[in-house]
Amino acid sequence: MIIVRLSAALLVASTLPALGQIHYSPSVQRYRLHTTVERTQEQNGQKTSGVITNEQQVTMSLQAPGAKGTLTDKDTLQFVVTLDSVNLSSNLAAQLPDVGVMRGTKVSGVMLPSGKVLSFNSDTKPADGVDRADIVASMAHFLLTLPTTAGANTTWTDTTAQNLSKDGTTIKTSTITVSKVVGDTTVAGQPAWRVHRASTLVIAGTQAQSNQQISMDGTGTGEAMYYIGTNGVYLGSTSTQTMNETVKAAGIVIPVTQTAKSVVTIIK
Description:
The chain is mainly beta. It has one domain. It has one helix and eleven strands; from the N terminus they run βββββαββββββ.
């Protein structure tokens, strides 16, 4: 949920950065993020649907230690991500959190040139009904994490499991993502590497609401393409995720389908 921009000398598409593999380089960039979540559910033979739209602009600064010109795998980058603007809207009959209170939030930390975050913290203030922890974490992990050996045709698999327990809600998710550097291209005149990602997701959970227990389980798939400049600049991405869920409450079974689409573009 964030945005970035960067400047560096253009390299030919077949040339890898100084480290000998794909990595991020010092820069200051701005990005625009546009996400839509379309949700459809069926109850008592009636289908209802709606869309939630999230618009954000973010500035990301990456700085190398001192005035070092050439990075190694063991060097670190200082990063600062600022949420310049954010707007959440929907035509669903549901109350949305006032995410506008997060405008101006800064998240700073340390990462490797591969994008792996070593530590981060934020200047955001505590509770006001907004899930600040999730927003801060997504800002800190805005960049795609790459293997230190990432180069042409590199393939890797990430497996994550998350357990959330908060305010009577318990949710468990498991995600397996296969990524591959599928070749090069040009984005806004900049030679770039394309990283394709395909995911499968399993989710299950319960929620206590109005003196009744609601259960939910589902499966999903996702596909994304990330573009990383040969000069070490993240140039944007596109992604789509579809979830098929079953919600059970008071003996009623409610099928739910949710499709999320996101586009990140660099702001020149």
